[in-house]
């Protein structure tokens, strides 16, 4: 009997006489597929079993409690919280929520910072079948009010921090639902709120009958996670019980076991942290939690708590590299880091300095229908999309050509999408393997908001794909690479410019810590001209000698249309709470010296450098410019 590996390869070509070695010679990329199938098969089996026996997230947690009650579930601020203790607190929450008599699947919003109480509040609400809206506690005013209302929350539970109370108090007149407040007793709770502490104090830690959630199905809401709101108000992505099961398997791509300790500084309201939390509960691991990211304490925490798997997101790694080097940098127990957003320009430097054995970069979207994972450590890649894996996957995904003027897929004369070639950037679209799971759409909010995410009739009449809104490409081995988010790519001189690509070139200069690249409007010119907000390293003082170096570096490494026409030197890089660069304000300010107090420069082809742009000379520059 040939091995399974042999069977797979021989079956691909239908030619029984060819050896495994011959197939690998003809298709060298197949070895990566076989490696992935080893991991993917195991994860797929776990998912299928959980779906079959209806083992939802709350069941996973309760089984782990029964199996290892005294094991530490969460480490927070040097205190250890066992599975048994977390369950006792969750049961108190469940008994409070039971008295509300809300229906299964109805929603409660929680606004709680990273703390074990976030977790036990979520679990308690799940025990009685309620969905939970994870509200971004950094939101204020209109965005905060919008997230609560659009989630259709029946009540709001607010953490004890003063800033959270003040944020909710600002919008309280427009809320007509109960507001529960951690950190206050009935004696001193502000008017309009109910003391959650007193309710917890008086609530019994009695088990709640599982019959209360017997009507759970795969499409019953589990949680709602909100988008960043960079293109309008935040939208609540639906994570139903079926998708939550998928979340709980994600850290298996880093070969997680119950003995692992997972470190996360990402806000728990974000899907990246939820992947870690659900994986920990499902396998019975331990989560090391911190209120917020601290570059100077990141590896210190990992050493102290013997972390074995660490999570990263966005530009987190860049800020860890920015910390002054220490002899103990590589002294830790981490065997893998998993996350998304690690840029290729710092990947190897980060991995080498901190001695990280394995980096697992992934690509996906909370509301998306597919995800990709780079388990091979290929620098810069976020997964693979090979012909074979795509054929056997229940979720067919493709990279297709797009129209940069409309951001929509290009169509051929038959009206169908056009596949991209190797190395050609295009739009990632993901198939929808089980439409029933998306019966309510990708977001709460109605048909119109959901329809925008569909690509219909892509290859045959009646098919439907999810539009990730991201530009990707793949190499000859079918490893895929993130190029840009639609909207981050801008058009200049009839060509498409990738902000991510230009930023990677700029940060290759030894004196540049980070670069935020974007397109700005130029009166009388088509498209947008490139501009870069540059953050120098702490040890570097700005001097005009740096300008010709930037000019020549861009000249040597970028096509003429992609070279930044404007530079501004900033003192700190504005980031979202998930360590992604903010661009909106910079785009609004453009290259207007009246709005920008930072040192501002424009390109000078004559002198082969960048020269100052001021309120005195900007009009003259615009009049003479041949942009």
UniProtKB/TrEMBL annotation:
Q: What class of enzyme is it?
A: ligase
Fetch the Pfam families from UniProt. Answer: AMP-binding (PF00501), AMP-binding_C (PF13193)
For whether the record's keyword set contains Flavoprotein, the answer is no
* Keyword annotations: Fatty acid metabolism, Ligase, Lipid metabolism
Q: What is its EC number?
A: 6.2.1.3
CC terms in the record's Gene Ontology section: endoplasmic reticulum membrane; plasma membrane
MF (Gene Ontology): long-chain fatty acid transmembrane transporter activity; long-chain fatty acid-CoA ligase activity
Task: Give GO BP annotations, semicolon-separated.
Answer: long-chain fatty acid import into cell
Q: Does the keyword Lyase apply?
A: no
Instruction: Supply the name of the protein.
Output: long-chain-fatty-acid--CoA ligase
Q: Which organism is this entry from? A: Magallana gigas
Q: Specify the taxonomic lineage.
A: Eukaryota, Metazoa, Spiralia, Lophotrochozoa, Mollusca
């Amino acid at each position: 009997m040939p091995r399974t590996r042999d069977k797979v390869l021989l079956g691909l070509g239908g030619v029984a006489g060819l050896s495994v070695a011959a197939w690998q010679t003809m298709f060298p990329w197949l070895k990566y597929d076989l490696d992935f199938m080893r991991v993917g098969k195991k994860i797929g089996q776990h998912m299928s079993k959980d779906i079959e026996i209806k083992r939802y997230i709350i069941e996973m947690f309760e089984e782990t409690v029964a199996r290892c009650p005294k094991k530490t579930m969460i480490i927070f601020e040097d205190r250890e919280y066992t599975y048994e203790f977390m369950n006792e607190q969750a049961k108190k929450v469940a008994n409070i929520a039971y008295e509300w008599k809300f229906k299964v699947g109805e929603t409660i919003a929680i606004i709680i910072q990273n703390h074990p109480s976030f977790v036990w509040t979520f679990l308690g609400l799940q025990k009685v079948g309620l969905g939970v809206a994870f509200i971004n506690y950094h939101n204020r005013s209109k965005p905060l009010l919008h997230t609560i209302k659009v989630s259709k929350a029946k009540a709001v539970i607010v953490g004890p921090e003063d800033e959270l109370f003040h944020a909710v108090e600002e919008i309280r007149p427009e809320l007509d639902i109960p507001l529960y407040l951690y950190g206050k007793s009935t004696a001193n709770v502000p008017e309009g709120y109910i003391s959650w502490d007193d309710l917890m104090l008086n609530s019994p830690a009695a088990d709640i009958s599982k019959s209360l959630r017997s009507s759970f199905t795969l499409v019953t809401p589990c949680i709602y996670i909100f988008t960043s709101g960079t293109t309008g108000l935040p939208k609540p992505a639906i994570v139903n019980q079926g998708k939550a099961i998928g979340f709980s398997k994600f850290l298996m791509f880093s070969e997680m076991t119950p003995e692992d300790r997972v470190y996360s500084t990402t806000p728990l309201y974000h899907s990246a942290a939820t992947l870690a939390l659900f994986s920990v509960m499902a396998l019975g691991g331990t989560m090391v939690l911190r209120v917020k990211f601290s570059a100077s304490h990141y590896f210190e925490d990992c050493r102290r708590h013997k972390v074995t798997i660490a999570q990263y997101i966005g530009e987190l790694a860049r800020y860890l590299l920015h910390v002054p080097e220490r002899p103990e940098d590589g002294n830790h127990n981490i065997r893998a880091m998993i996350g998304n957003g690690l840029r290729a320009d710092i990947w190897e430097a980060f991995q080498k300095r901190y001695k990280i054995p394995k980096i697992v970069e992934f690509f996906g979207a909370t509301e998306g229908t597919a995800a990709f994972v780079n388990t091979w450590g290929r620098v810069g890649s976020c997964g693979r999309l090979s012909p074979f894996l795509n054929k056997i996957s229940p979720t067919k995904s493709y990279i297709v050509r797009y129209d940069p003027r409309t951001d929509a897929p290009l169509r051929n004369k038959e009206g169908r999408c056009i596949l991209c070639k190797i190395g050609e950037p295009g739009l990632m679209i993901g198939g929808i393997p089980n439409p029933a799971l998306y019966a309510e759409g990708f977001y709460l909010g109605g048909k119109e908001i959901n329809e925008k995410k569909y690509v219909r009739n892509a290859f045959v009449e009646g098919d439907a794909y999810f539009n990730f809104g991201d530009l990707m490409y793949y190499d000859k081995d079918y490893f895929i690479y993130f190029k840009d988010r639609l909207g981050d790519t801008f058009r200049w001189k009839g060509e498409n410019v990738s902000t991510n690509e230009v930023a990677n070139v700029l940060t290759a200069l030894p004196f540049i810590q980070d670069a935020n690249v974007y397109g700005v409007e130029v009166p009388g010119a088509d498209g947008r001209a490139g501009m870069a907000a540059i953050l120098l390293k702490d040890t570097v003082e700005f001097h005009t000698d740096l300008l010709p170096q930037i000019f020549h570096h861009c000249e040597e490494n970028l096509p003429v249309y992609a070279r930044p026409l404007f530079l501004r030197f900033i003192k700190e890089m504005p980031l979202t709470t998930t360590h992604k660069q903010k661009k909106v304000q910079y785009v609004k300010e453009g290259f207007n010296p009246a709005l920008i107090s930072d040192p501002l420069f424009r390109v000078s082809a004559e002198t082969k450098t960048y020269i100052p742009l001021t309120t005195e000379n900007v009009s003259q520059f615009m009049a003479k410019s041949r942009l």
